[in-house]
Amino acid sequence: MAEPLIIPQDADGQRLDRWLLARYPQFRFGDIQKWCRTGQIRLDSKRVKGNERLKAEQKLRVPPQLAYADEKETSIPTLSATQRKNIESWILYEDDELVAINKPAGLPVQAGTGHERSADRLLLAYYEERFTPRLTHRLDKVTSGVLLFAKTRQSAEYITRQFKHREAKKTYMAIVEGAMLRPEGGQHMPPMGAITDPLLRVGNRSVIDKQEGQEAVTQYEVLDSPASGCSFMKLQPKTGRMHQLRAHLAYVGVPIVGDDAYGWAGELLEEWQGLGKNIMLHAAELTVTHPTTNESITFTAPLPAYFKV
Q: What's this model's pTM, rounded to 2 decimal places?
């Protein structure tokens, strides 16, 4: 029997059937309903209807069809010497409990359908399966910066709880459209403040919805507005909604450079060509309490070379 799936932190609160459909798009909704109805899908060993709300770290049993799909999609890659050296350069910090890396933009954090390579599988290969890197949070594929893995289940649960209870401190850097500190910029936001518009998840996007949306708070500071017509911002999300920073900035009229999914429609400057299909959003700093020392620890990721204004 295949090992159960461990529900990731980013799936917390999602409906079971919808999460499965997103994870396995090659199967029909009717298939998932049938497997739930016949007991082939079980959550923490219990039968399910499909409408249950998931909790991070729950154990999910799936039928052989889904387990086989996971096996095909999550095979461990073989690394060349050059690839190993490249992955080594990502590592910001490591001890017996944690590994922090500077994830490149364009790399998904977790293996899944359509992802041949991911941060978790590359680390598993790099460490030659000596332990299973466990995600404690996530970054969008198009975002670069600090990504923290735990080496044990206990440490993963300890760190994940800090994100759930809003104890982890996150700082991002972004380049956005609009010269916010210059008179010609046309923006009316103060140079420092908070965006507090509630967000509602709709499919793979988040939208502002003042009636049905969940609390979402983003503190920001505009650091610079050069003549390029863009601004350099520091962002500190106090809540953890999907695409929170991207949706908030787009809503107030300053979409992140490169983020055409949230309204950016400009052209990349020559200095930004290394961005590719990614966006100018970088997870620069993460502070958590260490699982064994109980001391505060901060991980800092340097900006990518193309991150210029």
A: 0.77
Q: Are 146 and 136 in contact (CB under 8 A)?
A: no
How far is it, in rounded angstroms, from Cα 143 to Cα 307?
Answer: 12
Q: Dihedrals φ, ψ of 226, to 5°? A: -75, 180
188, 222 in Cβ contact below 8 A?
no
- Which pLDDT belongs to residue 193? 95
**CATH no. for residue 114?**
3.30.2350.10
Rounded alpha-carbon distances, angstroms, from residue 276 to 107, 147, 254: 12, 20, 20
pLDDT value, residue 249: 96
Q: Which residues are catalytic?
A: 140
Q: Are 185 and 253 in contact (CB under 8 A)?
A: no
Q: Could you read off the pLDDT of 247-271 as tens digits, one per residue?
A: 999 999 999 999 999 998 877 777 7
Q: Residue 47 is part of a domain; what is its CATH number?
A: 3.10.290.10
End-to-end CA distance of the chain: 53
Look at residues 164, 181, 205 and tell me which one is the last residue of a structural domain.
164
Neighbouring residues of 96: CB distance < 8 A, sequence distance ≥ 6: 151, 292
pLDDT value of position 71 = 57
**Is residue 307, in this structure, part of any structural domain at all?**
no
User: Is 66 in the same domain as 98?
Assistant: no
Which of 25, 42, 73 is at the close of a domain? 73
Burial environment of residue 212 by CB neighbours within 10 A (0 to 12, 13 to 18, 19 or more): exposed
Find out whether 272 and 259 touch, Cβ atoms under 8 Å: no
Separation CA 232–CA 108 (nearest Å): 25
CA distance 228 to 226: 5
